[in-house]
Amino acid sequence: MLGRDHALSGAFAFAALGPTLHVTGSHLAAGVLLTAGAGVLPDIDHPDSTIARSFGFLTQAFAWIVARISGGHRHGTHSLVGIAVFSAGALAAGSYQLSAPHLTGHAAFSWHMLPAGLYLALLYSAALRALHVGGHHGDLLGIGGAVITCYTGWDLFRLGVGHWHVPLLAFATALGCAAHIAGDELTHGGCPICWPFSEHEFHLLPRPLQFTTAKIGENWIVFPLLTGALVLAVWHATGHPL
Ligand SMILES: [Zn+2]
């Protein structure tokens, strides 16, 4: 699946859950964009992917390392282990940000924001790049958005999931990665969800309904459907009846 459609599917997943999670306003906007970024995150295992090219050789070198560790493209980062590792990383960055000594609920800058800020900048920039928003200025927009999100603490907003209260940052990561894997499972490639225990590639659709990345099926059916679904989900999440 193309980066553009992965970002759209992540954004749609968050917007669709918005009313259930009682997320509105700036938290909804941050969540939609973060999940769009997390929607392209699993492709950090490929040096030529949208997200790997976000910050030039820095992210490309990181992608090269991730590919070595995770067994190559569409392996470890496209599995349940991958979702768990990315989410745990986001949770750790959020916890560190929250542990800032003088951060007692109101906005303030602290070094403790650095890991979460870098991660947010990566997700925002990757989402804007994937959606072709902002052109070369998309990265600057992403960095600016990350600074505002960290400063206001929007990324730490707690979402009620069952008995848990999960920070927005970690929730968006898990949801975006899951949407990515589901998207790749609609293609002929499939995903090895049980990696490293099994290399078996799982599919969500029977073979005749699967599509090939960047071909007619994706451009003329999947992309319009995702765009329409996202518009409807945002419309509904912002308080308008369907
Ligand atoms: Zn992928």
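^ zinc ion complex. Strands lie at 158-161, 164-167. Residues 3-237 form one domain.
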